[in-house]
Inverse folding.
């Protein structure tokens, strides 16, 4: 059936904000070091992580055990969105002044507007509301257990743990390099704000994150982009009421400002991924339609392990995505490749 378009109103999108803070860098560092399976995939070498651990106090190592067991890095990130903190002391003072209900409500994850009443009641100690939140989060890898911990743990312990963990990491890991870290994060925010003037919000999110396509949602009016160094090359996603948050890896240009010829790491990954005959075949196959790993293995006549390795490279370059066993082409990223190259060639001119 033909549709006659009589509306001139453009499709609404979200607005994009870009902010940085050493405290977000601090919380993400705590998240990274306690995510043991992920450490080997991060840019920071495992030997560097060991050096950091060796420098931490016995109490701080004990706090990290709690983080690893209960994923309380999530609580730190949640709390850091309560206001724009000016220092670690500001964070400590603010958290110390929160009531028990305010503290727990701030730490609980946002699961959508329909569950906000349960968040408040669960923070007040209502078991049924806690169970309702856990049920709503049952598909998430750790939210159910995390919700239970936040609701049931002693508030004095939770408050002391969060303040001690953030402060301990900040003093040992962040403070010695605070000036350099701040310079890199600030430079990246400046570059992203400049690019925001040239790009549509959705294009901006895809470009900053290296390939995430985030379409507007009715309940989200703002996307907050927050650069990080410690979790490179990964993006970390989060949700708050009215907000979608992407903690994204800073660009190579921000890390190495003295070298104007340094390309963005995602640009390099994309061209490296395409620089292989078999991976190009996979791209063409996925451009035709979605494929499972087994289907691609059969069509290419290669071993499943080899095909999976190639797909992993294409995924790391954000050119391919998967939903369970089904792989598809991230067409927007592929189409934007020429623009990404042009942006790199034009940068600094």
């Amino acid at each position: 059936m033909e549709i006659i378009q009589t509306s001139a109103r453009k499709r609404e999108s979200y607005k994009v904000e870009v902010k940085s803070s050493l405290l977000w860098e601090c919380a993400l560092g705590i998240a990274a070091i306690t995510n043991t399976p992920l450490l080997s995939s991060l840019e920071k070498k495992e030997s560097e992580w060991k050096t950091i651990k060796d420098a931490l106090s016995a109490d701080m190592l004990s706090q990290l055990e709690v983080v690893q067991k209960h994923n309380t890095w999530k609580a730190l990130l949640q709390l850091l969105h309560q206001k724009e903190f000016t220092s670690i002391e500001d964070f400590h003072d603010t958290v110390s002044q929160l009531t028990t209900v305010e503290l727990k409500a701030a730490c609980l994850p946002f699961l959508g507007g329909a569950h906000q009443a349960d968040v408040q009641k669960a923070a007040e100690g209502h078991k049924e509301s806690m169970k309702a939140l856990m049920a709503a989060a049952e598909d998430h890898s750790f939210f159910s257990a995390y919700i239970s911990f936040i609701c049931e743990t002693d508030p004095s312990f939770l408050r002391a743990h969060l303040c001690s963990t953030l402060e301990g990491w900040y003093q040992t890991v962040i403070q010695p390099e605070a000036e350099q870290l701040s310079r890199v994060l600030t430079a990246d925010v400046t570059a992203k704000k400049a690019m925001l003037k040239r790009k549509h919000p959705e294009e901006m999110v895809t470009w900053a994150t290296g390939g995430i396509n985030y379409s507007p949602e009715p309940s989200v009016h703002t996307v907050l982009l927050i650069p990080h160094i410690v979790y490179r090359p990964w993006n970390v996603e989060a949700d708050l009421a009215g907000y979608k948050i992407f903690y994204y890896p800073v660009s190579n240009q921000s890390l190495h400002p003295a070298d104007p010829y340094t390309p963005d790491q995602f640009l390099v990954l994309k061209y490296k991924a395409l620089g292989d005959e078999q991976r190009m075949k996979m791209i063409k196959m996925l451009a035709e339609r979605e494929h499972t790993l087994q289907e691609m293995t059969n069509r290419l006549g290669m071993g499943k392990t080899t095909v999976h390795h190639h797909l992993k490279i294409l995924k790391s370059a954000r050119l391919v995505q998967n939903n369970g066993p089904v792989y598809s082409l991230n067409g927007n990223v592929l189409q934007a490749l020429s623009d990404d190259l042009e942006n790199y060639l034009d940068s600094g001119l």
In short: The mean pLDDT is 91.
